[in-house]
Amino acid sequence: MALALELSDTTSERTPQPSGVAVQSQGDDMETNNGELENECSPFENDGVTNKLECLWENQELIEPLQMELKKVKATGLTTIVEEYETPTVIGDWKPWKIDESEEMQRRDCIAELHKSYREMMRKFDILNYQKMYAVGFVQQNEFQQFQVLLQRFIEDEAVQGGRVQTYMVVKVAKVQKTKPLPAVEQTEEEKMSVKKYLRGEAADLGELQDKKLKGQLAVREELYGKSAQAAAQAEKWLMPSEGGYLEVEGIEKTWRIKQDAIAAEVDILSLRKQFDIVLPDLGPYTLDFSLSGRYMIAAGKKGHMALLDMKNMDLIKEFQWDIKLCKSFQVRETVRDVVFLHNQKLFAAAQKKYVYMYSDNGTEMHCLKEHGAVTKLQFLNKHFLLTSINKLGQLHYQDITTGEMIGNYRTGLGRTDTMEVNPYNNVIGVGHSGGTVSMWKPTSAAPLVKMLCHQGPVTAMAFHSNGHLMATAGMERKIKLWDLRKFEVLQTLPGTTKSMQFSQKGLLAAATGGSFVQVFGDLSGSQEYSRYMGHSIAKGYQIRKVQFRPYEDVLAIGHSQGWSSILIPGSGEPNFDTWVANPFETRKQRNEKEVRSLLDKLPPETIMLDPSKIGSVKPATKKEGPTKQDIEAQKEAAIEDAKKTKLKKKTKGRSKPSKVTKKKQEAIMRAKKPFLEKQDEKVKKKRKRVEEENQLPKSLQRFARKVPAS
Amino acid sequence: MKVKVISRSTDEFTRERSQDLQRVFRNFDPTLRTQEKAVEYVRALNAAKLDKIFARPFIGAMDGHIDAVSAMAKNPANLKWLFSGSMDGDIRLWDLATRQTVCQFPGHQGAVRGLTASADGRVLVSCGTDSTVRLWNVPLPSHAQDDSSDNEAKPLATYVWKSAFWGVDHQENGELFATAGAQVDIWNHNRSQPINTFEWGKDTAISVRFNPGEPNVLATSGSDRSITIYDLRLSSPARKIIMQTKTNSIAWNPMEPMNFTALNVQEKRKSVFYTWVGALLFTYGLRLDFVLYNLLHVSSHAALGCWLLTCYLANEDCNCYSYDVRKMNEARCVHRDHVSAVMDIDYSPTGREFVTGSYDRTVRIFQYNGGHSREIYHTKRMQRVFCVKFSNDGSYIISGSDDTNLRLWKAKASEQLGVPEAVSSIAESFACLQLLPRERKNHEYLEAVKNRYKHLPEVKRIVRHRHLPKPIYKAASLRRIMTDAQRKKDERRRAHSAPGSIINKPLRKRRIIKEVE
């Protein structure tokens, strides 16, 4: 509709000039007509032919230049639509469509057919859109007639598509042609993949179900799931506003040889602003954290400098500095080991020398969380509102920041560590230890869910992929390992030592290798085989402390001993944000509303588990089934057969006499039978015993007999 | 080398002017919303809790009668008008929106037993213990509001007949109405005597309902514990079942015209309830006449294959029984929960649920195929409920009780009624209550997640929980103990008897003694 409106607006300005003349081409014939005259004729009227002839002569001086221009158009090659059918004759002045009943009815039929294939429609729409842009270009060049031709085509297409512009335009369609039914759309491999993504796993197997009613209900449910997945895939295909970034090379060029300067030369000015270095040599090294939407960043220098920044406007919102001249409340004259945003940018927590502190965005200290101790690493579970920390003693703390309640306080018992990451898929906390083990924790159990030996030396860094199935760990022994968390198996081992690693939203893995070099690995083949994608080295001697991808942007932020840098990594961020998940353009009102909403949806700590899809599902039956009577019988038969078949040794001194042989065979058979008979005996005895006990009482009193537990 | 990086200009992603709506972008990628199931579960839990918080079903009481309300009738032509009759012979027309009396119809000497309105809503038919049938002209809505001073109507006609009447029902589309008394009489508006009379045995019929789908079929319940089906095209009743207890009231399912429900009265209180025997209502749906005719008389079984026909009955053993008219030897469903006799029953126009009023001072709402009630309504001051009605739009319930009041309830206890649009009168506002689309969508979403997680223990517990008055709670637990004991006793009896000598009759058949053709 918007498209149509725009068109009508642009045209209405121009209409007086050629006095509403419409030009229509069919083969080499050209007709022009006076719009006003034509208005009097109703659509489908055939006796307008005589009028047309008169009009022809009246507007001869107009027509000739028009014809000339049209020829020019044909020569220059306007994108043509093949016109097999008779096209509408004339366009009149722009005014509301007169709807003819019979025509409308036919259109409805067409619409019904067309709705079957949304994709085809959208494709058409794209063509139209393209034509519109083309047309607008022409209007600007003062070539209105050409525009009219285009418009004519647009309207012809409208006739096929149904009355999308019916309130804005008059179309006199000479003959309503029947549209052919569109061919069934075949899904491409890509589409199938995206549908699969939205299906969230396999459909339930209904074949085994006995209950017909339940089966029917579930079948309906499954169909609905399928439809919604299709719809979501279509929406993804057509309605997403942005496309993801990419870096493509030709020939012998390699992506990892491309420097930031080369990228800077290619990208637009907005993106250029995202490439920068901040040099703050005094208070580093710096650690960084981004808010959920990637709009805000907090940087914390080890020696007590903290800064809260708006990355969209490149504003410094608040800075804490170790500066005696400044007001006291602005100082953090302590070591800052880690810093995280809480549920939004209004609150953040900093792990300082002795305690964890919570600050508001204007620099006010809100809380001092003494129970956590001297924390080395902080994480925040934003759906559960849990602030998680690991301290110098290797204790893991979970604190609910809405109620202040300490949900869990567990000793890892594996020593001091500063490697702790959250698995975004299930919010399980992974902790890497100095012994080379990685343990995974949830707030409701004192023992780790998983304890896996990943490295031979201390674990220096780890990262989780956003799909939850991939984990990267780095050890002191110069190895980076990629793990499949569904099977707990190594997928790949890469060389390198790193202090900080992170997966981007699109699955790129950034690792700070070798002190001042950042390497980005990518799953370029799509088979979970990570290889070099990009690299970036900062000045020698700078020690990188933290690498952090900015969510929803193709940006990697690097915190190091001399400040922090921001570089462009094309294809790292999710191009399309969801307003209800994380909105980089959030207003204050939206933020407040979201805070309330997220508090309402706050998850209880029990929902953290290794497989979060278990919630609401049925526990499968655990009862084991023993061998049936037939099975036992068959086993017995087989054993007897075996015993019969065994050949006896030929022995001397009368010991192989037939009588002896038969006796021995009988004995062997008895031996084979024995275990089965014993088992049967036991059963019979048990039963007899029970029956005897029951028989001691008259039947009417048996129900009062004490139940003897089966031994 | 080709490079593209994500670059968003603020103009494209924010609104242009401050009057515009904020722009919203969606990305349905599952990896962006982790822990979906947990979030949905929490939302379902919160929705269940909010439902409990907002469950305020009682809208208001309508005060005016000076004796117990004994009968009610809906006006098919007007959504907000309701007729009610009381034990002192007073008949009133209520405007549910303002909850005030529009006009009164004085004349009856004794209790009004039955009330019904004609199909066009212009004529009201009442009958009572004074052996009269009275026809009244219902005022027009505009007329009724104009002259508030003269709000007493005079009867169009008064027909005096032989014996007291117990119930009346009008054809949904037609000129006839039927009265229940010593016999079942069929009347025409213009005749002072019945045009037809049915009798089967000597016992009194206590309630009568026309099937709205088939105007010629009606069902009655009698004091001989019978439920009888009549066809006006025949000279004699068509079919009858005899139950262990008396049936108070019958209602036809409007969407499955062959199904009806009946309510039974407890035997020991028979003397008390004798006068309170309710109504039977058949409602309409598909083309019933041909099929019903077939199934009742011609018995061409092939034609019946796809038809389902149930009657819903309110019964004296505290239960309601749903019957398929084609298969009267067993109930389709037994609806249990009331702890005392069920007095009246009415179907929602959707046919998916029905409301019952009981002698235990509660109103309950059942699913048409649910064994237990979905909802229970009670107030401190509400006494024995003698009549209940679903409003014609299915969103309100009206109950009339011994304490002379009519009460207006919401059919869905926690439903949000919406904000009235700017309208002049309260009456209009009542009709204009509606939700904003976003609110409605949110309600639908919450309903869906609640439905999805309804089996999880916490959600189930909250959704099921109802506060009960102490006497009802105690009576219910006592009944449970009694039924458990009886079941155990039966089991033991069976265990000590020769196999096959004691037949275990299912509950659906237990109350039915025999079927008579």
From TrEMBL, chain A:
Residues 532-612 form the BING4 C-terminal domain. PROSITE patterns: WD_REPEATS_2, WD_REPEATS_REGION. It is found in: Nucleus, Nucleolus. InterPro entries: BING4_C_dom, DUF1666, WD40/YVTN_repeat-like_dom_sf, WD40_repeat_dom_sf, WD40_rpt, WDR46/Utp7. Transmembrane segments: none annotated. Residues 646-663 have a biased composition (Basic residues). Keywords: Nucleus, Repeat, rRNA processing, WD repeat. Residues 1-33, 607-711 are annotated as: Disordered. It holds the Pfam family BING4CT. Residues 622-645, 664-684 have a biased composition (Basic and acidic residues). GO terms for cellular component: 90S preribosome; small-subunit processome. WD repeats lie at residues 452-493. One of its GO terms (biological process) is maturation of SSU-rRNA from tricistronic rRNA transcript (SSU-rRNA, 5.8S rRNA, LSU-rRNA). Its main location: nucleus. Residues 8-33 have a biased composition (Polar residues). This is BING4 C-terminal domain-containing protein. It comes from Salvia splendens. The lineage of its organism: Eukaryota, Viridiplantae, Streptophyta, Embryophyta, Tracheophyta.
UniProtKB/TrEMBL annotation, chain B:
PROSITE patterns: WD_REPEATS_1, WD_REPEATS_2, WD_REPEATS_REGION. The keyword Secreted does not apply. The keyword Nucleus applies. Its main location: nucleus. Keywords: Nucleus, Repeat, Ribonucleoprotein, WD repeat. InterPro entries: Sof1 (IPR007287), WD40/YVTN_repeat-like_dom_sf (IPR015943), WD40_PAC1 (IPR020472), WD40_repeat_CS (IPR019775), WD40_repeat_dom_sf (IPR036322), WD40_rpt (IPR001680), WD_repeat_DCAF13/WDSOF1 (IPR051733). Residues 435-512 form the Sof1-like protein domain. WD repeats lie at residues 62-104, 105-138, 335-376, 378-419. One of its GO terms (cellular component) is small-subunit processome. GO terms for biological process: maturation of SSU-rRNA from tricistronic rRNA transcript (SSU-rRNA, 5.8S rRNA, LSU-rRNA). Residues 485-504 are annotated as: Disordered. It is found in: Nucleus, Nucleolus. Pfam families: Sof1, WD40. Belongs to the WD repeat DCAF13/WDSOF1 family. PANTHER family: DDB1- AND CUL4-ASSOCIATED FACTOR 13, U3 SMALL NUCLEOLAR RNA U3 SNORNA ASSOCIATED PROTEIN. This is DDB1- and CUL4-associated factor 13. The lineage of its organism: Eukaryota, Viridiplantae, Streptophyta, Embryophyta, Tracheophyta.
